[in-house]
Design a protein that fits this description.
α8 packs parallel to α14, α10 runs parallel beside α11 and α11 runs parallel beside α13. This protein has 14 helices and 20 strands. A hairpin with a 2-residue loop joins β14 and β15.
């Protein structure tokens, strides 16, 4: 008896050091046996000792089941070093277990930028090699920046499923979350760039633009609007004008990183939607021979890149765009646009991405843009709010729905009035859904460039 007592004493002394925990199955078994123990105590009070003896035996069974489960030799989490906001990213967990392991599970703790509220659970399935288990979880990053995977938990049960081993390991894995460049890689844009003559090789491009380059004999199929009637009358033969396309323009993509642009739009902040559209247009502009730069501001100016003149510098724009932070403050348009004007030495096209929620903020924005438009060409880009439109079109079934619809209609009218004021000032305005604003921006940029309106 003393030997048995010593054995259990040593076993209980070692329990805190063992990474063994009861499983949910063990908890259900205990819950099922509790009424039986009460029944035995009520029917045969003298047999009450059987209940604690059975409980102790069950605890020993849990420990033995956990011991049979074996140990872990290696476990790790593998993630890509880089990904893009809004694009799926796979995180894989591998574990090498020794013993009779069953139902291994893993849990990950990571930066909330990766979504899923900063944690994920996954099942590990057996691989081709004995004792090797693997599993993967797909996350969709919700914000740009550097996200860390901080901890990995691994848990596996014994053959009976009553005891489980559990280990935890801190991680230092980092994932850099870049702006979404899927529109740049799209087949539509690549086909357009292949067919577009602008930017394929460094040469003077004839046949486009408004700056006169040379005269050539008119041939059937040419645009008749290109016929130079005065030169044709002098030579008694039809001649057409060949113009040189405008190049080397300065284009600044300015981003409002304030509170309104931090609000989500179909799962991603507006600023991320704007960055993706701007980088797509910047890539086209670089291909066309123009120079581009990025400017970000909130309460004060944050980012101002030098002008990039070719596609080899596109990575610099991408890195600068990734550094645009989210700031839940009201933007200071007066300071930001005055700083931008002071840094520009020549007339440029300024593409301003912003949004507004109240007339006061919009008034300050319009006043600042009115000073900017005196020296530069301004293109104002805002994302259409699909949620606001759904509130307006919602059937007013109750008072709350009616009030929400009326409020949304008022905001939409105020928004329309502000955009009309900008147009009357000479500002070009784009208001489009987030999934089409990038291509509309490219179309508007090419139209502005075609009519030589920048330089």
């Amino acid at each position: 008896m003393s030997r048995l007592r010593a054995f259990f004493s040593r076993l209980l002394a070692r329990l805190p050091a063992l990474p063994i925990v009861p499983t949910a199955r063990a908890a259900w078994v205990i819950a099922a046996l509790a009424p039986l123990a009460l029944l035995v105590a009520a029917a045969a009070p003298g047999a009450w000792v059987t209940a604690p003896a059975a409980a102790l035996a069950f605890v020993v069974l849990i420990v033995l089941d956990g011991l049979v489960a074996g140990s872990v030799r290696r476990h790790e989490a593998i993630a890509p070093a880089d990904t893009e906001v809004g694009r799926p990213c796979a995180i894989t967990v591998h574990a090498l277990l020794r013993g009779k392991a069953g139902r291994p599970e893993a849990a990950l703790e990571f930066d909330p930028r990766l979504g899923l509220a900063g944690r994920a659970d996954l099942r590990l399935l057996p691989g081709e090699e004995s004792g090797v288990f693997s599993g993967a979880i797909e996350v969709v990053p919700e914000r740009r920046g550097t996200a860390s995977i901080t901890r990995l938990w691994l848990r596996w049960t014994g053959p009976l499923g009553l005891g489980a081993r559990q280990v935890s390991q801190p991680l230092e894995t980092e994932i850099r979350i870049w702006p979404d460049l899927s529109p740049v890689r799209s087949k539509e844009l690549q086909t357009f760039l292949r067919n577009e003559r602008s930017g394929l090789i460094a040469r003077r491009i004839r046949g486009e633009g408004t700056q006169f380059e040379a005269l050539s004999e008119y041939e059937p199929g040419m645009d008749r609007r290109r016929i130079d009637w005065k030169a044709s009358a002098r030579h008694n033969h039809l001649y057409a004008r060949e113009n040189e396309s405008e190049r080397n323009n300065q284009i600044v993509f300015a981003f409002d990183c304030g509170q309104a642009m931090c609000e989500p739009l179909d799962g991603l902040p507006r600023i991320d939607r704007a960055v993706s559209a701007a980088l797509t247009c910047a890539y086209v502009a670089l291909k066309g021979g123009d120079r581009t730069a990025l400017f970000g501001f909130a309460a004060r100016p944050r980012v101002m890149t030098p002008f990039v003149g070719d596609t080899r510098g596109f990575a610099r724009l991408q890195s600068a765009a990734a550094a645009l932070d989210y700031e839940p403050v009201e933007p200071n348009f007066t300071l930001a646009l005055a700083t931008l004007t002071a840094r520009l030495q020549r007339r440029s096209l300024i593409v301003l991405f912003s949004d507004f929620t109240d007339p006061t903020a919009a008034e300050l924005m319009v006043e600042s843009i009115s000073r900017l438009v005196r020296k530069h060409l301004v293109l104002f880009v805002t994302l259409a709010d699909s949620e606001l439109e759904s509130f307006i079109q919602e059937e007013p079934g109750d008072i709350a729905t009616l009030a929400r619809s009326v409020t949304a209609g008022t905001l939409a009218r105020q928004r329309s009035l502000v955009l009309q004021r900008l147009r009357r000032m000479g500002v070009d305005v784009i208001e489009a859904p987030w999934d089409s604003v990038g291509f509309e921006l490219i179309d508007r940029y090419l139209a502005i460039r075609g009519r030589e309106a920048i330089g």
